[in-house]
Amino acid sequence: MCGIAGIIHRDGAADIGDELTAMLNSMKHRGPDSTGFAMYGPADDLVIVRFMLAEPNDFKGFGMAERLERNRAEVEARLAKIGADLATIHTEDGGYAFRATIRYGGDLKPLADYLEDIPGCQVLSLGNSLEIVKDLGDANTVHEQYGLAGIRGSHGIGHVRMATESDVDLASAHPYWAYPFADVAVVHNGQLTNYHMWRRRLERMGHRFQSECDSEIIAVYLAQHLEDGEPLETAMKHSLDDFDGVFTYLVATGSELGIAKDEMAAKPLVLMETDNLVAMASEEIAIRALVGAEVETRDPFEREVLTWQV
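The structure assignment produced for this chain is given below.
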């Protein structure tokens, strides 16, 4: 079933970690297995790297503490080797999740590939404003574990997942970063029936994927169109022609947030828009959890694409 949510403040930063948590927690009945956040703060000269060195389910395995220490040292060594100047690095409370900031002016793909070559390393996001945080459990659990109360930003998207066709693990949790494009992330409710065709097509273009999830295909597809010079709205409209299936997705970049629904519009999404705030979610209860009052919402139409700028 799953649930998706998005928010954009058009008048400055807000407590985006708390806000998305309230929205996602109100929909935990749609997905108790994992929760994820893609949050966007002010753009920085530093590149923010969110990565994991173990699956949460494997964290307490024999010798894990020593392995994590070795692999963290390997991450730092590889960053230095590729010419990245490490500014900060720290682990979250779980012990397997890390956040680093680096000074780096090169291509992100070799950097991400080099880090992911370390056994157990998964790069969740790279960019100047994007931070993806995701883990097993409900929104409040992830919020507390990762200290999201301290995160402010202009916009973000989130996802609660019910595992129906794949394992309860980090690799299957949303959001998905558009590897290796900076600051592009997607959450999605539905299914692409021509997933394998598009995966092969994108792989022939040189792209690689971190998961078997069709949501990652959407993220990389859109990011490639952006890289080719298309506006986000145009890329999203092309996606409605190219993707088959029943789906609703949210996409965010460093400066925009967008929604798209397929021609059947079977996957729910409601939208509230004011002068300063836009909020959207699979259920109206999530928007009420954000604003604390009755709200007037609308349901986007079939094949509707909407975008907003920060």
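Interim note for the steering committee: The domain at 44-128 is CATH 3.30.70.260 (Alpha-Beta Plaits). The radius of gyration is 18 Å.
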